[in-house]
Design a protein that fits this description.
Blueprint (H helix, E strand, L loop, with lengths): L12 H8 L6 H5 L2 E2 L3 H11 L7 H8 E2 L15 H12 E2 L15 E2 L10 H13 L3 H18 L19 H12 L2 H5 L1 H11 L12 E2 L2 E3 L5 E3 L13 H10 L4 H14 L8 E3 L2 E5 L4 E2 L1 H20 L3 H22 E2 L4 E2 L2 E2 L4 E2 L9 H4 L5 H15 E2 L2 E2 L14 E2 L1 H13 L3 H22 L6 E2 L19 H11 L2
Antiparallel strand pairs: 1-2, 3-4, 5-6, 6-7, 8-9, 10-13, 11-12, 13-14, 15-16, 17-18
Length: 496
Amino acid sequence: MMTKTFFIESLNELYIDVQSKEIFHDSKYFVDCIPKFSVDDILKKYSSDKNKENFDLKLFVAENFSFPAEIDTHYNSSGKTIQQHIEQLWTVLKRKPDAQSGTLIPLLNSYIVPGGRFREVYYWDTYFTMLGLQISKRIDLIENMVENFAHLIHEIGFIPNGNRTYYLGRSQPPFFSLMVKLLSEEKGENILLKYANALEKEYQFWMDGKDKLTAINNRFRRVVLLPDGSVLNRYWDDHDTPRPEAYAEDVEIAKLANTDTAKVYRDIRAAAESGWDFSSRWFKEPNKMQTIQTTELIPVDLNCLMLHLEETLLQIFEFKNDEIKINSFKEKIDQRKKSIQTFCWNETAGFYFDYHFLEKKQTLHYNLAAAYPLFFSVATQEQSNKVAAIIEEEFLQSGGVITTIQTTGQQWDAPNGWAPLQWITYKGLKNYNHLSLAKKIKDNWIHANEKVYAATGKMMEKYNVMDTNTKAGGGEYPNQDGFGWTNAVYLKLLNE
């Protein structure tokens, strides 16, 4: 599958020049362009032309690349209710199976894109999108996308951040087991057996190197050996260079850092793997992205997701009556549950935090990753009571729940709220019978979505939940409309 794939970095100095000089409004734009000629021919021409008088770099790109296609749907939401809009937008956001083109990795089946600048499928977005497709009875699309991800696992070895070659150094939060379970709700438990091999390979990817860990070499890729002998996961990226889709931005951040630039680049990439790109959650100093330290942290949400993957695999091995693996995974599950509580729960604060394994202490950064142990039923009732009290006091706003209590200008911080975290928090609270607070979050979020839709005719990627009269902002690019996971979570919450 990957033999004819185009890597934008293969353009060498042309790629660096285009991205450094920021000739396009968005760094992602150029890396989504499609070469009209061979890389060798383009580079040869660039080498001969670039020193000529009146050389125009943007014109050169236009002559040698096809720009990303703008999808002209002629779609207009005028006169439609928000539900009609969302139901019809599934068709607008649907993409047909791909042929190889530029950096795009082809998929076998049609799929839903988020919208806006996001022209490809994204891993963790897709699970939340599926929640809405389930309400819309588009089970065909859910199955298509599970098939696509299983295909990527078998062909590449994992599910990349998105189906682009510049995402091949990293994945995203491992929601594949939740997708398979969602599909099994519609098509029966045999679905678990159908995707058993893909789920095992997903697990092997995230646990790669576990057997190599020692007290001296206690970390490798996405696994970390902790002092009590347990192994937990972290976010990672196999590359330590600027992200092609954000080259200029990453170079500027690295210039501000007082450390090895390769580490800064890897930590930026690892934060992109988390899906929370970017948040003060990953920074040593909340307002300074150059202090990013993602790979030094054990994230509570990631390890809850890994627990669900282990529990799903256990269910599969029980179907197969594989006693050896049943016993092995029961032990893994018990160990991970215990470790999440040991390293991420803070009894004094009454909250879950990420664990800094180098400094051997928690980050004490308040954010909604603390809702994951409730969503996955890891917490005790007493722990859930404490978490719920803090969520109500510190996170609940008129438009839903804020992501963190820090206001930094990063998009995964206050005042912004995001659909996936509304859902995780809502369901987590419901699991422990905090029904009144869960309903407040649901009602406030739905109202915020409806208010913006009434004013703009659009659903947004994120919302300012502290002031619903103001648009969300922050981050490396403008707020995007579309928007897959927002549409889906709205439908799901409305039907709860």
